[in-house]
Amino acid sequence: MSAQDDSALGGFWAQVLGWDVSSEGPGVTNLEPEGFVYPDPVAVCLDVVAVPEPKTVKNRVRIDLATTSVTHQTELAARLEDLGATPADLGQGDVPWTALADPEGNEFRVLEPREIYRDTGPMAAVTVDCVDPRAMARFWDEAMDWTLHEVTDDRAVLRSAKGVGPYLEFLRTPDAKTVKNRVHLDLRPYPGEDQAEEVDRLRALGAIAVDIGQGDVPWTVLADPEGNEFCVLTPA
Protein backbone atom coordinates (compact mmCIF):
# COMPACT_ATOMS: atom_id res chain seq x y z
CA MET A 1 0.00 0.00 0.00
CA SER A 2 1.47 3.34 -1.07
CA ALA A 3 1.40 6.16 1.47
CA GLN A 4 2.74 9.66 1.85
CA ASP A 5 3.36 8.85 5.53
CA ASP A 6 3.99 5.11 5.87
CA SER A 7 4.43 5.22 9.64
CA ALA A 8 1.16 7.03 10.33
CA LEU A 9 -0.87 5.00 7.85
CA GLY A 10 0.75 1.78 9.03
CA GLY A 11 -0.18 2.69 12.58
CA PHE A 12 -3.80 3.17 11.53
CA TRP A 13 -4.00 -0.21 9.80
CA ALA A 14 -2.24 -1.94 12.70
CA GLN A 15 -5.05 -0.75 14.96
CA VAL A 16 -7.67 -1.75 12.39
CA LEU A 17 -6.33 -5.29 12.07
CA GLY A 18 -4.87 -5.74 15.54
CA TRP A 19 -1.49 -6.66 14.03
CA ASP A 20 2.12 -6.08 15.02
CA VAL A 21 4.20 -3.29 13.45
CA SER A 22 7.81 -3.49 12.29
CA SER A 23 10.00 -1.89 9.63
CA GLU A 24 12.42 -3.48 7.18
CA GLY A 25 13.94 -0.07 6.45
CA PRO A 26 13.29 3.65 6.00
CA GLY A 27 9.99 4.41 4.28
CA VAL A 28 8.49 0.98 4.87
CA THR A 29 6.13 -0.09 7.65
CA ASN A 30 5.36 -3.81 7.85
CA LEU A 31 2.23 -5.28 9.44
CA GLU A 32 1.57 -8.92 10.30
CA PRO A 33 -0.35 -10.88 12.93
CA GLU A 34 1.42 -11.63 16.21
CA GLY A 35 3.47 -14.79 15.85
CA PHE A 36 3.08 -14.96 12.07
CA VAL A 37 5.64 -17.15 10.29
CA TYR A 38 5.96 -16.85 6.48
CA PRO A 39 4.72 -18.53 4.29
CA ASP A 40 1.72 -19.42 6.48
CA PRO A 41 -1.34 -18.47 4.35
CA VAL A 42 -3.39 -17.62 7.43
CA ALA A 43 -2.83 -13.95 6.60
CA VAL A 44 -2.02 -11.67 3.69
CA CYS A 45 0.45 -9.33 5.37
CA LEU A 46 0.52 -5.61 4.63
CA ASP A 47 3.54 -3.48 3.72
CA VAL A 48 2.98 0.29 3.69
CA VAL A 49 5.53 2.04 1.47
CA ALA A 50 6.28 5.76 1.32
CA VAL A 51 5.73 7.47 -2.06
CA PRO A 52 5.75 11.19 -2.92
CA GLU A 53 2.57 11.29 -4.99
CA PRO A 54 -0.87 11.71 -3.38
CA LYS A 55 -3.91 9.57 -4.11
CA THR A 56 -6.00 11.01 -6.97
CA VAL A 57 -8.59 8.40 -8.03
CA LYS A 58 -10.65 5.65 -6.44
CA ASN A 59 -8.53 2.60 -5.72
CA ARG A 60 -9.12 -0.51 -7.82
CA VAL A 61 -7.63 -2.75 -5.13
CA ARG A 62 -9.17 -2.63 -1.67
CA ILE A 63 -9.39 -4.42 1.66
CA ASP A 64 -12.66 -5.84 2.98
CA LEU A 65 -13.01 -6.33 6.74
CA ALA A 66 -14.97 -9.20 8.27
CA THR A 67 -17.52 -8.89 11.08
CA THR A 68 -19.33 -11.48 13.17
CA SER A 69 -22.66 -9.69 13.75
CA VAL A 70 -24.54 -6.54 12.82
CA THR A 71 -23.62 -5.13 16.21
CA HIS A 72 -19.95 -5.90 15.58
CA GLN A 73 -20.18 -4.21 12.17
CA THR A 74 -21.69 -1.05 13.67
CA GLU A 75 -19.21 -0.93 16.52
CA LEU A 76 -16.22 -1.60 14.25
CA ALA A 77 -17.20 1.14 11.79
CA ALA A 78 -17.62 3.60 14.67
CA ARG A 79 -14.25 2.63 16.17
CA LEU A 80 -12.52 3.07 12.83
CA GLU A 81 -14.01 6.53 12.40
CA ASP A 82 -12.66 7.38 15.85
CA LEU A 83 -9.23 6.26 14.58
CA GLY A 84 -9.45 8.62 11.59
CA ALA A 85 -11.46 6.81 8.92
CA THR A 86 -14.10 8.77 7.02
CA PRO A 87 -17.24 7.72 5.10
CA ALA A 88 -16.53 6.93 1.43
CA ASP A 89 -18.66 6.96 -1.69
CA LEU A 90 -18.01 3.95 -3.92
CA GLY A 91 -21.27 4.49 -5.78
CA GLN A 92 -22.67 1.78 -3.55
CA GLY A 93 -26.22 2.99 -3.10
CA ASP A 94 -28.30 1.03 -0.56
CA VAL A 95 -26.04 -1.83 0.55
CA PRO A 96 -25.58 -3.77 3.81
CA TRP A 97 -21.87 -2.98 4.06
CA THR A 98 -20.17 0.24 5.16
CA ALA A 99 -17.71 2.06 2.92
CA LEU A 100 -14.93 4.00 4.62
CA ALA A 101 -11.60 5.55 3.66
CA ASP A 102 -8.42 5.49 5.70
CA PRO A 103 -6.61 8.74 6.65
CA GLU A 104 -4.94 8.91 3.20
CA GLY A 105 -8.19 8.23 1.33
CA ASN A 106 -7.77 4.53 0.56
CA GLU A 107 -11.27 3.08 0.37
CA PHE A 108 -12.20 -0.10 2.23
CA ARG A 109 -15.37 -1.87 3.29
CA VAL A 110 -16.66 -3.07 6.63
CA LEU A 111 -18.80 -6.01 5.56
CA GLU A 112 -22.00 -7.20 7.15
CA PRO A 113 -21.58 -10.67 8.72
CA ARG A 114 -21.21 -13.33 6.02
CA GLU A 115 -20.79 -17.03 6.63
CA ILE A 116 -18.05 -17.32 4.00
CA TYR A 117 -15.79 -14.98 6.00
CA ARG A 118 -16.38 -16.52 9.43
CA ASP A 119 -12.80 -17.89 9.67
CA THR A 120 -10.71 -15.42 7.66
CA GLY A 121 -9.50 -13.28 10.52
CA PRO A 122 -10.02 -9.50 10.46
CA MET A 123 -9.28 -9.23 6.73
CA ALA A 124 -12.10 -10.89 4.82
CA ALA A 125 -10.76 -10.32 1.32
CA VAL A 126 -8.57 -8.32 -0.99
CA THR A 127 -10.84 -7.18 -3.82
CA VAL A 128 -9.76 -6.04 -7.28
CA ASP A 129 -11.95 -4.16 -9.75
CA CYS A 130 -11.67 -5.57 -13.26
CA VAL A 131 -13.38 -5.58 -16.64
CA ASP A 132 -13.28 -9.37 -17.13
CA PRO A 133 -13.35 -11.56 -13.99
CA ARG A 134 -13.06 -14.71 -16.09
CA ALA A 135 -9.81 -13.51 -17.67
CA MET A 136 -8.48 -12.50 -14.26
CA ALA A 137 -9.40 -15.93 -12.91
CA ARG A 138 -7.51 -17.67 -15.71
CA PHE A 139 -4.36 -15.66 -15.02
CA TRP A 140 -4.35 -15.57 -11.23
CA ASP A 141 -5.42 -19.20 -10.85
CA GLU A 142 -2.19 -20.13 -12.64
CA ALA A 143 -0.08 -17.35 -11.12
CA MET A 144 -0.68 -18.46 -7.53
CA ASP A 145 -1.04 -21.83 -5.85
CA TRP A 146 -4.45 -20.85 -4.51
CA THR A 147 -7.76 -22.57 -5.26
CA LEU A 148 -10.37 -21.04 -7.55
CA HIS A 149 -13.68 -21.23 -5.67
CA GLU A 150 -16.02 -19.35 -8.00
CA VAL A 151 -15.96 -17.69 -11.41
CA THR A 152 -18.81 -15.94 -13.20
CA ASP A 153 -19.13 -12.99 -15.56
CA ASP A 154 -19.30 -10.71 -12.50
CA ARG A 155 -16.95 -12.24 -9.94
CA ALA A 156 -14.00 -14.56 -9.43
CA VAL A 157 -12.96 -15.83 -6.00
CA LEU A 158 -9.72 -17.52 -4.91
CA ARG A 159 -8.38 -18.64 -1.54
CA SER A 160 -5.36 -20.44 -0.19
CA ALA A 161 -5.39 -24.14 -1.02
CA LYS A 162 -5.19 -24.76 2.73
CA GLY A 163 -8.58 -23.11 3.20
CA VAL A 164 -7.36 -20.43 5.61
CA GLY A 165 -6.87 -16.68 5.53
CA PRO A 166 -8.60 -14.05 3.40
CA TYR A 167 -9.98 -14.43 -0.11
CA LEU A 168 -8.78 -12.75 -3.31
CA GLU A 169 -11.76 -11.52 -5.32
CA PHE A 170 -12.03 -9.94 -8.77
CA LEU A 171 -15.20 -7.89 -9.18
CA ARG A 172 -16.56 -6.70 -12.50
CA THR A 173 -16.69 -2.93 -13.00
CA PRO A 174 -17.16 -0.73 -16.08
CA ASP A 175 -14.37 1.62 -14.99
CA ALA A 176 -11.05 1.28 -16.80
CA LYS A 177 -7.72 1.48 -15.00
CA THR A 178 -6.11 4.91 -15.52
CA VAL A 179 -3.24 5.31 -13.05
CA LYS A 180 -0.79 3.16 -11.11
CA ASN A 181 -2.55 1.26 -8.33
CA ARG A 182 -1.79 2.48 -4.82
CA VAL A 183 -2.54 -0.99 -3.46
CA HIS A 184 -1.01 -4.01 -5.18
CA LEU A 185 -0.09 -7.63 -4.58
CA ASP A 186 3.42 -8.92 -3.93
CA LEU A 187 4.22 -12.50 -4.91
CA ARG A 188 7.17 -14.34 -3.37
CA PRO A 189 8.66 -17.61 -4.65
CA TYR A 190 9.02 -20.29 -2.00
CA PRO A 191 12.47 -20.94 -0.45
CA GLY A 192 14.65 -22.75 -2.96
CA GLU A 193 12.75 -21.46 -6.00
CA ASP A 194 14.31 -19.12 -8.55
CA GLN A 195 12.99 -15.57 -8.91
CA ALA A 196 13.96 -15.22 -12.58
CA GLU A 197 12.30 -18.52 -13.47
CA GLU A 198 9.14 -17.41 -11.69
CA VAL A 199 9.14 -14.12 -13.60
CA ASP A 200 9.50 -16.03 -16.87
CA ARG A 201 6.62 -18.33 -15.90
CA LEU A 202 4.35 -15.40 -15.09
CA ARG A 203 5.20 -13.65 -18.34
CA ALA A 204 4.34 -16.82 -20.23
CA LEU A 205 0.92 -16.68 -18.55
CA GLY A 206 0.33 -13.15 -19.87
CA ALA A 207 2.04 -10.81 -17.41
CA ILE A 208 4.08 -7.95 -18.82
CA ALA A 209 7.08 -6.07 -17.43
CA VAL A 210 6.30 -2.50 -16.37
CA ASP A 211 8.35 0.50 -15.30
CA ILE A 212 6.82 2.42 -12.40
CA GLY A 213 10.06 4.24 -11.65
CA GLN A 214 11.34 1.46 -9.40
CA GLY A 215 14.98 1.87 -10.45
CA ASP A 216 17.55 -0.73 -9.39
CA VAL A 217 15.67 -2.94 -6.94
CA PRO A 218 15.83 -6.65 -6.06
CA TRP A 219 12.22 -7.29 -7.04
CA THR A 220 10.63 -7.39 -10.50
CA VAL A 221 7.53 -5.35 -11.33
CA LEU A 222 4.98 -6.96 -13.64
CA ALA A 223 1.37 -6.25 -14.56
CA ASP A 224 -1.47 -8.71 -15.02
CA PRO A 225 -3.55 -8.80 -18.25
CA GLU A 226 -5.62 -5.80 -17.11
CA GLY A 227 -2.59 -3.73 -16.13
CA ASN A 228 -2.67 -4.25 -12.35
CA GLU A 229 0.89 -3.96 -11.14
CA PHE A 230 2.38 -6.61 -8.86
CA CYS A 231 5.87 -7.38 -7.62
CA VAL A 232 7.79 -10.65 -7.70
CA LEU A 233 10.05 -10.63 -4.68
CA THR A 234 13.18 -12.63 -3.99
CA PRO A 235 12.58 -15.98 -2.24
CA ALA A 236 12.41 -15.80 1.54
**Topology-level CATH name of the largest domain:** 2,3-Dihydroxybiphenyl 1,2-Dioxygenase, domain 1
Strand order of the largest sheet: 6-7-8-5-9-12-11-10
CATH architecture verdict of the largest domain: Roll
Question: So, the CATH homologous superfamily of the largest domain?
Answer: 2,3-Dihydroxybiphenyl 1,2-Dioxygenase, domain 1
Proportion of strand residues = 25-35%
> Unreliable runs, pLDDT <50, ≥5 residues?
none
Helix content: 10-25%
Count of separate DSSP helical elements: 4
- As a whole number of angstroms, the C-alpha radius of gyration is 17 Å
Provide the succession of SSEs: EHEEEEHEEEEHEEEEHEEE
In one word, what is the shape? globular
What's the CATH C level of the largest domain? Alpha Beta
Structural class: alpha+beta
The number of E-state strands comes to 16
* Rounded average pLDDT: 96
The end-to-end distance, rounded to whole angstroms, is 20 Å
Largest sheet: 8 strands, mixed
